[in-house]
Design brief:
elongated, transmembrane helix, membrane, about 0% strand, mainly alpha
Length: about 100
Amino acid sequence: MRQGMNHDRRVWRHRADTALRVVVAMPGGYAVASLWAMALARILPGGPAEATFTATLVAFALCAFTAMWAFAARSGWRAAWTTLLGGGAAAAIAFGSIALTGRA
């Protein structure tokens, strides 16, 4: 009886880890990609249209990378924290740029 409870606990832990990875991969990847697109569009050289286009292309690749990283990481929590740190860095760059130079 006791061994069955440990098995059930492992099964639920595995399901929760997989669910966390899916959340990190799909909405997390989209959020990180859009934050990096916003940050790169602000700091890349060239005109606004060219910088935005290049930043969007890079963000598509970053979204795919984030989804792959979510399932390649050692654990779901590691994937979540590293994705959160990457998104936080992009947000800091984007909003710092807006604070320093204005919205134009």
